[in-house]
From TrEMBL:
InterPro entries: FAD-dep_OxRdtase, FAD/NAD-bd_sf. Residues 32-383 form the FAD dependent oxidoreductase domain. Keywords: Oxidoreductase. This is Glycine/D-amino acid oxidase. Coiled coil: none annotated. GO terms for molecular function: oxidoreductase activity.
Length: 434
């Protein structure tokens, strides 16, 4: 790999929209709502609540948006990990359709929010191509696309292998499917813009403020932080992949998983035209498959995937992700990388995002790697739940996720689990009709 020494191990997104600490302000002693987590979910909820006249305090032990909100791939997939067929088996077809329908609503909410609020975040409603690894997967995807189009009116269709060159310049896939309700954003710019709205609405946002614990104190909550104690009528927790020991109950239910992203050096226009002629967002049908896209300016390729490492080494994990890039686009063998970084997404036992309540505390969490859509949406559902209005209704209001046996925050089982997924992907490729 060329230019290894020049790779920056920080998010590409931070070049145009660096995350920064907020000026230190005295922490209010009392508030209507205290929100833990200043990412997409917490900040969007704070906008809704503050505009409704509630006093709102948002605290985060890091800088606003410093976690997954500014580190992700910026694809508005709103993906649900279980397939439509699996959701139907688990919850029934009506609930599965309600979940898929809410995904459509959640994307529309995000797009309307961006346009109405005039958020400067490089929003590109270009659609997404999902590559099939074999004919069987292509046919299953075609059936799902037909169901979603007929039942929910989603603009989605199958792309046979003979026509896929219109969408992607790769021979790895055996056709695929397109969803036109998916696009791309610059996630760090989006996080910065939602922060701006929160501050303008009157929310008090405090960075570098760690929550030590939350306890019920009569009709209110007492929230102990590193900057003092706050009395709050309501508490909303939106910590997701960066949940720590301040909430051991939640930590036992969320698995932080590293996701690593690489970005190529600038590519000639003719290369981008050949490899990504439609300039769409992209994914593939493997458990540990890659997601990829052009950067907003159309000059580079950004590609991400699971990072099974747990140490500080950057070179090894970067090379593994780069091999995924070369599997799809072999001609990029001599192209250098400009950036490589990782962030934590949060998975739960059943892989479904949710809003729920426990002992009076409301949670919006477990976005399972698709937080660009689900975090703002479920943040708003949680905010409306706290306001007690009819907009709180959601197909994602489930019981709390199940605790993971013998787990207290360190995912000891993750390396074995990822190896198992890799084996399943190898078997899927070996069995696929290619």
């Amino acid at each position: 790999m060329s230019k290894t020494a020049q790779i920056q191990n920080s998010p590409y997104w931070w070049v145009a929209a660096p995350v920064r600490p907020l000026p230190v302000q005295p922490l209010p002693q009392k508030t209507d709502v205290l929100i833990v987590g200043a990412g997409f979910a917490g900040l969007t909820a704070s906008v809704i609540l503050a505009r409704a006249g509630r006093s709102v305090v948002v605290v985060d032990k890091m800088m606003p948006g410093e976690g997954a909100s500014s580190r992700n791939g910026g694809i508005t997939s709103g993906n649900i990990r279980p397939s439509f067929d699996e959701l139907s088996r688990r919850f029934g077809e009506d609930r599965a359709l309600a979940i898929e329908a809410e995904g459509k609503t959640a994307r529309k909410f995000l797009y309307d929010f961006i346009r109405t609020e005039k958020l400067d975040c490089d929003f590109q409603p270009v659609g997404k191509f999902g590559g099939a690894i074999g004919r069987e997967q292509y046919e299953a995807g075609a059936r799902t696309a037909e169901t979603l189009h007929k039942r929910l009116g989603i603009e989605t269709f199958a792309v046979p292998q003979a026509e896929q060159s219109r969408y992607i310049g790769s021979d790895f896939y055996r056709g695929g499917h397109v969803r036109m309700d998916i696009g791309g954003v610059h996630p760090a710019k989006l996080a910065a813009e939602i922060l701006r709205l929160a501050l303008e609405a009157g929310a008090a946002v405090h960075s570098g403020t760690e929550v030590k614990g939350v306890r019920r104190d009569g009709a209110e909550f007492s929230v102990e932080t590193s900057a003092g104690t706050v009395s709050a009528r309501q508490v909303l927790v939106c910590t997701n992949g960066y949940t720590d020991g301040s909430d051991p109950w939640l930590r036992r239910r969320l698995i932080p998983v590293r996701s690593r992203i690489i970005v190529t050096d600038p590519l000639p226009t003719e290369v981008m035209d050949r490899l990504m002629p439609s300039r769409m967002m992209y994914s593939e049908g493997l458990i540990l498959g890659n997601y990829f896209r052009p950067t907003p300016d159309g000059t580079r390729i950004l590609l991400g995937g699971r990072d099974a490492s747990s140490g500080t080494d950057e070179a090894g994990p970067t090379e593994k992700i780069r091999q995924g890039l070369l599997r799809i686009f072999p001609e990029l063998k001599t192209v250098g990388l400009s950036h490589s970084w990782y962030g934590h997404v949060a998975m739960n036992w059943d892989m479904v995002p949710r809003v729920f309540e426990r002992e009076g505390v409301t949670y919006a969490t477990g976005f399972c790697g698709s937080g660009v859509v689900w975090a703002p949406w479920l943040g708003t559902r949680a905010a409306h739940k706290l306001l007690g209005d009819d907009q709180a209704r959601s197909a994602f209001e489930f019981r709390p996720p199940a605790a993971i046996p013998f787990y207290n925050g360190k995912p000891y089982f993750l390396p074995a689990l990822i190896q198992g997924y890799r084996l399943r992907d190898r078997l899927s490729l070996a069995r696929a009709t290619r």
